[in-house]
Amino acid sequence: MKIEPILKFVPKISTDTSLLHVAHVMAKYRLRALPVVQDNTIIGKIDVRVIVNDNLWGFPKLIFAKETKSDTPVYIVGLPDDPFEAEAAKIKFTRLINSLSKFIPQILEARSIIKSSSSGGQREHYKINVFIKTAKDNFIYSSSG
Questions:
Q1: Fewest C-beta in 10 Å: which of 75, 91, 130, 145?
Q2: Helix (H, G, I), strand (E, B), or coil: what is residue 47?
Q3: Distance, CA of 103 to chain centre
Q4: Nearest-angstrom CA–CA distance, 40 and 141
């Protein structure tokens, strides 16, 4: 189907658009779906269910997030393959360390190791280990889900 003149005013995405950009466009224009266009032809659509069902950790909060930086060195190993999930993990971990550094100002370094597994077609499970090094102590935290 060729793009009609009226659709020229509707935001469109291509097949190589990242999910993060799709989420930003949907939020900016308050849309629940966007047409996917290739060579000026609509080849499909992507809607908010695709993003939410893709298990994208805190989608509504993260798409409005400004870039989060930390004065503390932050290292993350084993980020998810999906770029939006990876960015979400980075933002969450960096925010956590920034919050902790208000109470533990002597944090020298923070590391997170993420291991994921899935059996069959089931939902992916994550095991996360966090190591926080301070001038006096080392803290270790583990979680899975």
A1: 145
A2: strand
A3: 26
A4: 50
Beta-carbon contacts of residue 106 (< 8 Å; ≥ 6 apart): 134, 135, 136
CB 102, CB 63: distance < 8 Å: no
Mean pLDDT of the chain: 77
Domain spans of the chain? Answer: 5-54, 64-144
pLDDT average, residue stretch 79-100: 83
Q: Are 97 and 107 in contact (CB under 8 A)?
A: yes
Distance CA 145, CA 137 (A): 27
Q: Does domain 5-54 match CATH 3.10.580.10?
A: yes
Task: For 30-70, write each residue's pLDDT tens digit.
Answer: 888 888 887 777 777 887 776 655 544 444 444 444 556 67
Q: Is the pTM of this model over 0.70?
A: no
Alpha helices in 2-127 (DSSP H): 19-29, 48-53, 59-62, 83-103
Distance between CA atoms of residues 25 and 14, nearest Å: 12
